[in-house]
Specification:
Helix content is 47%, strand content 19%. With 302 residues, it is of the alpha/beta class. The strands form two sheets. An eight-stranded parallel beta barrel has the order 1-2-3-5-8-9-10-12, surrounded by six helices. α2 crosses α3 and α6 packs parallel to α7.
Length: 302
């Protein structure tokens, strides 16, 4: 299982702050540096800058929303950033959420599965250097791109429900999850996407699991902090469904917290389940706890 760390600064900090995080990830020995895209910087642009300063990492988006980005434009940007990273881009994409798509962007969220299926039907050929010849309900595209000499980025979809997991397994390289616990990964995420990929004759999928993590002696305090920091996800339907599957009330029940040995055991459980990439969201604020957490994470980079 490969180790990744999540940027906290890409939305609230500066590009220099993200650079510092990437340097820390490299010093840690991480394989991948992941950055979300919410309402701050354009993540792909930031990663193109950061990768030129801090080579040697895979740079991943977790995740870029598809609705406001025409797939041809995203393909062009992704290929350009892939070149900037030396071919080390993991393109994570996702739908976002109904409340964002409809109330903030003023777009329809009526057919999200069809949207993603057609989006990938345009995006993937273009990333592979082929023309996209797609006539559908969501997109009608007949175009090619000339960004050459670049390895296709790995494409992972923020797929949680069964239908989306099947789309990701059939058309993409895997899934990128958040707010999904080990029981749900083992019983739902991993078997569903693996079966879809196998049925489509595709390689075994990449399963990127992002979870909050903190090494601490005060588990109750850490879980209380997780509940507060990640409270927004509790009421988003897609994440709420995953929490219900896991049997937890909120994100505090999903956080990987405890002593060094307890955190090691919880991360090892993810590897045993079939997670290929662990994306650690370190949420401690105390420098001592950050250092203790980093020391455990570094073991997975060896």
């Amino acid at each position: 299982m490969r180790l990744g760390t999540m940027s906290n600064a890409v939305n609230d900090g500066s590009i220099d702050d993200v650079l510092a995080e990437a340097r820390q990830a490299k010093e840690l020995g991480a394989h991948t540096f992941w950055a979300p895209q919410i309402f701050g910087h354009d993540t792909l642009t930031v990663l193109a800058v950061v990768a030129r300063e801090v080579p040697g990492l895979e740079y991943g988006t977790a995740v870029v929303p598809t609705y406001p980005r025409f797939p041809v434009s995203l393909a062009q940007q992704a290929l350009t950033v892939s070149q900037a990273t030396g071919g080390q881009l993991a393109l994570g994409i996702g739908l976002s959420h109904r409340v964002v798509v409809e109330q903030m962007w003023g777009m329809s969220y009526d057919t999200p599965v069809r949207h993603m299926r057609e989006y990938l039907s345009v995006l993937m050929p273009l990333l592979e250097g082929k023309p996209a010849m797609h006539e559908g309900t969501e997109f009608n595209v007949h175009v090619g791109l000339s960004v050459s000499g670049i390895a296709r980025p790995s494409v992972v979809v923020a797929a949680l429900g069964s239908q989306m997991l099947r789309v990701a397994g059939q058309l993409a390289d895997g899934t990128s999850t958040w707010c999904v616990g080990p029981r749900t990964l083992a019983d739902h995420i991993v078997p569903t996407i693996r079966q879809a990929a196998a049925d489509a004759g595709r390689p075994e999928p990449r399963i990127v699991c992002a979870l909050p993590v903190c090494v601490t002696d005060d588990v109750d305090a850490a879980r209380a902090r997780a509940a507060k920091v990640f409270a927004v996800y509790t009421n988003l339907p897609s994440y709420r469904a995953m929490m219900d599957k896991e049997g937890v009330a909120d994100a505090s029940g999903l956080a990987i917290v405890g002593s060094e040995d307890e955190v090691r055991q919880q991360i090892a459980e993810l590897a045993d389940i079939g997670v290929t990439d662990f994306n650690a969201g370190v949420f401690a604020s105390d420098p001592e706890l950050v250092a203790r957490t980093a020391a455990v994470l570094a073991e997975w980079a060896e």
